[in-house]
């Protein structure tokens, strides 16, 4: 389907998105009209406490919320003007891995333990290239074998890019042979191999040691800006937002409370909830046990 041009050609424009989830005998609205616009070169932090709807917003963008239990009640998800709520599964499969990449919290659940890293990356690169050899730097008419070879070459380059030492030999290792931080780098390489225009990262560093977290966030930041793509970074940690994001949307109970450039929102938060989240960022001066909890606070 050719996207309709005109109305909104932002990279991603989520417009008044409403989603309900069915759970035992009852349907509950969980996203109450989310609006958000992501342009190239922007890293949007989606921040908020657990259950505020961050992951469902990210998953909706990739149309990965299963239905049932999910049901969209209204709104649009415009990807370069094409409404993904109207797209069929075939169209979404073509977009995922090619135009959109996703990184999840726990790399172990997203890397298949049975296959070598290289096999999974080559498959991802071939999926992204589809029938078009030029996407792997090959001339038209290149055969499957040439495409495989080029895909492996691309995978090695991508592993080098995300900082895996000796990628020519490490590509033939299995996921369990990598440390947690290295696995997350491999997952980033896999998400980026199809040269996506939009990257969605859901708590990509939560499972990692603090020292490794900063490196991985820096890597995502640099890749997004270098390739001039857009990124949605889902986190419950406003400190992460302050570290790498250009923009932030603060979510609370299925709504965006406030959004805008990070410098602006963090400097002059309009909402008490944002101020409370900021109070939860540890600083060098924070005494042990001195962080304020937000549980039970009603905004
Ligand atoms: N499969 C599901 N069935 C029913 N309700 C769900 C389902 N998945 C999520 N929800 C509900 O939707 C709301 C938003 O969930 P979501 O996972 O998007 O929150 P989140 O902000 O990403 O939280 P977390 O930081 O814990 O991942 C929550 O109230 C959650 O209970």
What is the secondary structure topology, with strand pairs?
Layout: E1 12-23, E2 26-38, E3 43-47, H1 54-61, E4 70-79, E5 82-83, H2 89-95, E6 100-103, H3 107-110, H4 117-129, H5 144-161, H6 167-170, H7 180-192, E7 198-202, H8 210-227, E8 230-235, H9 238-244, E9 247-252, E10 255-261, H10 262-267, H11 272-279
Parallel strand pairs: 3-8, 3-9, 6-7, 7-8
Antiparallel strand pairs: 1-2, 1-4, 4-5, 9-10
Helix pairs in contact: 4-5, 4-7, 5-7, 7-8
The protein binds adenosine-5'-triphosphate.
Q: How would you describe the overall organization of this protein?
A:
With 299 residues, this protein is of the alpha/beta class. The chain has a domain at 107-195. Helices cover 35% and strands 23% of the residues. The protein has helices spanning 54-61, 89-95, 107-110, 117-129, 144-161, 167-170, 180-192, 210-227, 238-244, 262-267, 272-279, and strands spanning 12-23, 26-38, 43-47, 70-79, 82-83, 100-103, 198-202, 230-235, 247-252, 255-261. A six-stranded mixed β-sheet has the order 6-7-8-3-9-10, sandwiched between helices. A four-stranded antiparallel β-sheet has the order 2-1-4-5, with helices on one face. Strand 9 (247-252) and strand 10 (255-261) form a beta hairpin. Helix 4 (117-129) packs across helix 5 (144-161) and helix 5 (144-161) crosses helix 7. The radius of gyration is 20 Å and the shape is globular. The chain starts with 11 loop residues before the first strand and ends in a 20-residue tail after the last helix. Residues 1-6 and 289-297 have low confidence and may be disordered. The site of adenosine-5'-triphosphate (ATP) has 13 residues, from strand 1 and helix 1. The site of adenosine-5'-triphosphate has 13 residues, from strand 1 and helix 1. It is a peripheral membrane protein. Keywords: ATP-binding, Cell membrane, Membrane, Nucleotide-binding, Plasmid, Transport.
């Amino acid at each position: 389907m050719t996207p309709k041009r005109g109305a909104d050609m932002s990279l991603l424009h989520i417009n008044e998105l409403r989603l309900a989830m069915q759970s035992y005998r009852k349907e509950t609205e969980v996203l109450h009209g989310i609006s958000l616009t992501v342009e190239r070169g922007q890293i949007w932090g989606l921040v908020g406490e657990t259950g505020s709807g961050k992951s469902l917003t990210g998953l909706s963008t990739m149309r990965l919320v299963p239905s049932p239990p999910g049901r969209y009640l209204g709104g649009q998800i415009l990807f370069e003007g094409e409404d993904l709520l109207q797209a069929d599964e075939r169209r979404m499969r073509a977009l995922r891995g090619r135009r959109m990449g996703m990184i999840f919290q726990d790399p172990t659940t997203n890397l298949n333990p049975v296959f070598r890293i290289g096999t999974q990356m080559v498959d991802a690169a071939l999926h992204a290239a589809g029938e078009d050899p030029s996407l792997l730097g090959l001339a038209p008419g290149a055969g499957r074998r040439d495409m495989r070879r080029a895909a492996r070459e691309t995978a090695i380059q991508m592993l080098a890019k995300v900082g895996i030492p000796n990628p020519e030999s490490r590509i033939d290792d299995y996921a369990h042979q990598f440390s947690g931080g290295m696995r997350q780098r491999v997952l980033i390489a896999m998400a980026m191999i199809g040269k996506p225009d939009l990257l969605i990262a859901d708590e990509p560093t939560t499972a990692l040691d603090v020292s490794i977290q900063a490196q991985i966030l820096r890597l995502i930041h640099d890749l997004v800006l270098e390739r001039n793509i857009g990124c949605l970074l889902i986190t419950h940690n406003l400190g992460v937002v302050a570290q790498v994001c250009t923009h932030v949307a603060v979510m609370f109970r299925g709504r965006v409370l406030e959004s805008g450039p990070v410098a602006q929102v963090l400097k002059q938060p309009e909402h008490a909830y944002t101020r409370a989240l900021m109070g939860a960022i540890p600083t060098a001066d924070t005494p042990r046990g001195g962080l304020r909890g937000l549980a039970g606070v009603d905004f």
